[in-house]
Task: structure prediction
Amino acid sequence: MNGFNAILRRDLTLAIRNQGEVMMVIAFFAIAATLFAFGVGPEANVQSRIASGVVWTTALLAALLSLERLFAVDYDDGTLDQLLLSGVEPVVLVLAKTLAHWLTTGVALLIAAPAVALGLQLPATGYGALMISLLLGTPILSLLGAVGAAIVLGARRGGVLLSLLLLPLYIPVLIFGAAAVEGAVLGMTTTAPYAVLGGLLILALTLCPWAAATALKHAVE
Amino acid sequence: MHKFANPTFFMKIANGIFPWATGISILCFAVGLPLALIISPPDYQQGDTVRIMYVHVPAAWMGLMVYGVMAASSAVFLIWRHTIAHLVARASAPIGAVFTALCLVTGMLWGEPMWGTWWVWDARLTSMLILFFLYLGYIALGDSFEDQERGDKAAALLALVGSVNLPIVHFSVEWWNTLHQPAIFGLKGFSVNAAMLQPLLLMVAAFQFYYIAVLVIRLRAELLSAKIRTARFNLAAAE
Result:
């Protein structure tokens, strides 16, 4: 547990001292959503129709953007070897770093999402569902992302490769996340997509840390 | 099982299987194709378009099965470090990707006359598309490392992670109400008429043995390229 706290505190401290990274993710989120707004034109009813999907898609891409550096920075300067040699369980290391990633990127996306949704004219009934679905969904993105980030350590063109590996795995999260918001906008019950997202989160939480830890061990071998 | 980890022994068996697999595959195609495409009765609703099924269903089945083989061999590779298991997975990936692509393309060709659209975003089609992307990711990942061994392990791990998708593809028609019709092969037997089942099973067998035959060819090539690599190393070391 000490190792977990230490790594979590370290990563959060680094994120606070180096705020540019989180700001960049938020800026990307906003700009990508703006592109959609320009792409479909200024008509409010068209925008509000697609807002749920656009907010979810751009949030997902923004999360992906930040994942490349999750382990790569520590891998490149040798910190990762030291951390693994220090006797911390690799699974604990992964969990701590993933939680730190979610607390910075995921929470930042959660805070920025209503503003982006507002810009895309999301109807008022959709905001609650947007926040709940993002709250359930973004941790899954971080967990799956940790697996991908660990797998591509040391690869050529790691960033492009990471998107190729992760985006297919992100599709279920996107489908149910956007479905929750869409359902809320149309006045339907949103229990089903929440339940599926919650189930996916538990599944990811039980499997992903171990997969990522195995990949990390292979990477530093 | 560990006996099979020896490449020489493994290839001896594989080479022994090869002529049989090729022969059975050709035979099944020779009997199955005319049966499926000409002799079998047209569907009372779908007419002659139902004949697409004889390619579509076996291709879908193989796309899933080959990924299963890939995941299983990857697990064997990661647990027991048997290189031959990884070679099987690596050699299977492009074959499985092509089967999956064939399934998607024939599905689109079938969907257009039947559903009036080339593509719908329903669960079965989407999960099959994800399977195709997983194949592409696996192939891309294996070649992306300077250190070949690291690439092998990363790809094996990805194959395991991606196997989560297999049950989703299989059960997608049961879990969700979709446009795609329910599976033909199920635990409760077959849901098609015997006159259609016969050619379908022949085609499945033909695809199955085709995969085995191509797999052996690809394995030979993989082992040869490994040998060439070692020979080059030795040559460079001797100089």
Notes: Chain A has a mean pLDDT of 91. Chain A has one domain: 2-220. The two ends of chain A are 25 Å apart (CA to CA). Residues 90-119 of chain A form the longest helix (30 residues).
